[in-house]
Amino acid sequence: MTIEEMKKKKTEKGFTNEMLSKLSGVPLGTVQKIMSGETTAPRKFTIDALSKVLGDESGDYTKISHSEKSMVSETAVAYSAEGGKRKYTIDDYYAIPEDRRVELIDGVIYDMGDPSLSHQRILGDLFVLFRECASKHNMPCEVYLSPCDVRLDKDNYTMVQPDLLVICGEYDENGILYEGAPELVVEILSPSSRSKDMVLKLYKYQNAGVKEYWIIDPKHRTVYIHQFSDEDYAPKQYAFDQEIPIGISEGKCSIDFSKVRA
Q1: Predicted model pTM
Q2: For residue 98, pLDDT beyond 80
Q3: What is the DSSP string of 46-77?
């Protein structure tokens, strides 16, 4: 189905971009760019996911049940070679084409939208600041950027790609992935990842043994810090112009967020 055909079908069915995003599993920002003409050459799996929804003449999507909507979304979001619902494994994860960015969490594969330029600018600045801090205070830690595979639970059903991770102690520097929970993880929110990063991955990181989790919210210019290593912790909130302490450094290190070009 061509983009023009998809636009026509969208109008005929009375879909909004939000409805089409929910039903197909394609991030809202991607749908908006395609329908506005900003994106003229979407990836094949994106076209396939949208075409599946727009080409379905079986009924009125405004009247389908919540469980049916979830199934439609899952078939678009989760990579399926067999077309059925099942628990996916790391073997499935590595079978997906390299140009498709995904994460595997508890047996479900989630598509990851392409990062925006502002997302990459924030991430690049944070990488530099974290590395400078670790070097200045002789912390035995390394800082890595996405894409970097993290086999969080050391099982066969979860492989995540944090935006930034800090690893302390010994590990296989020549490996193709990191096994276990990093000391610190940073995620930068986007419209397509917001609920996953703030809810699903929050609990995954905490239960896996991550000591500290930073959630960067560019829209509201806020940084949320979860210090899991403190049993009585309460999430802390900082503005983009504040100095933010790095908990795992035990008071040695902090990030001056005013230096981040957000």
Answers
A1: 0.68
A2: no
A3: HHHHHHHHHT--SS-GGGS-HHHHHHHHHHHH
